[in-house]
Amino acid sequence: MNGVAQWIVLALALVCPTACVQAQTFPTGPISIVVPLAPGDAADISARAMGEEISRLLNTPVLVVNRPGGGGTLGAYSVVQSAKNGHTILFAQNSALTFRAVLDPQSVPYDALRDLVPLGIASRTPSVLVVRSDAPYKTFAELIEYAKKKPGQVRIGHPGTGSVGDFCVQLISTLTGAELVPVPYTGAGPTIAALRGEHIEGIVSSLGALSTHIKAGTFRGIVTSNRVPEFANIPTMRARLSGRALRHLVQLSRACGDPRGCEEGARRRN
Hints:
Layout: H1 2-15, H2 18-23, E1 31-35, H3 42-58, E2 62-66, H4 73-80, E3 88-93, H5 94-103, H6 112-115, E4 116-125, E5 127-132, H7 140-149, E6 154-158, H8 164-176, E7 180-184, H9 188-196, E8 202-206, H10 207-216, E9 219-224, H11 243-246, E10 248-255, H12 259-269
Helix pairs in contact: 1-3
């Protein structure tokens, strides 16, 4: 985390708007890190740890602000609308940057390539589908067979509409023919509570958010997007689903002060 935080501080200095350069100082006030997920989510915990390190490196207050909803778009849009001075940072998964725009473009009031400047990647983690350990289905194949026998009755929670988890549930349903019902929440934390309370039959979220519960034996991981040595007993779907498409990525960004320049930068990155 220390290394990532140092890179973010360097990136903020390098891409700081002209106003900051003219002032010859950055930051000029507190920094806000906007997390478009509910408090207690794995991304929220990571953002707070990074915020503490950035605060130490810059000797300035860093506030973590939770703005869940809309598959991450509410929080992301608040950053797009913020002052273009580098003091507001978006700490968001790829749902707010890509997936939501693909699944429901009318609901995204910004263009991530034009309106946001990437500062760095905080983490990459596989997606995983988990069920309760006492569930009647012990494997991915058994869950799909169960879902086909009871169409529309197997509810799979995910961190929000347009999230990576939402995309995963729909993709699995399409490829297997099972009628899984995606149920949106405002982050991984609420999905965990729902599965514990038997309000849903499974969760698709990041392995980082669910690993503790898998290790504790509360949940059983039945399929993951990428092989992880620590969870080698969980089979992957890479033979049938693109591991890259299902991976959770967390990126830090700031609002773009010059959309034309950001669009040109995006073209160069592509």
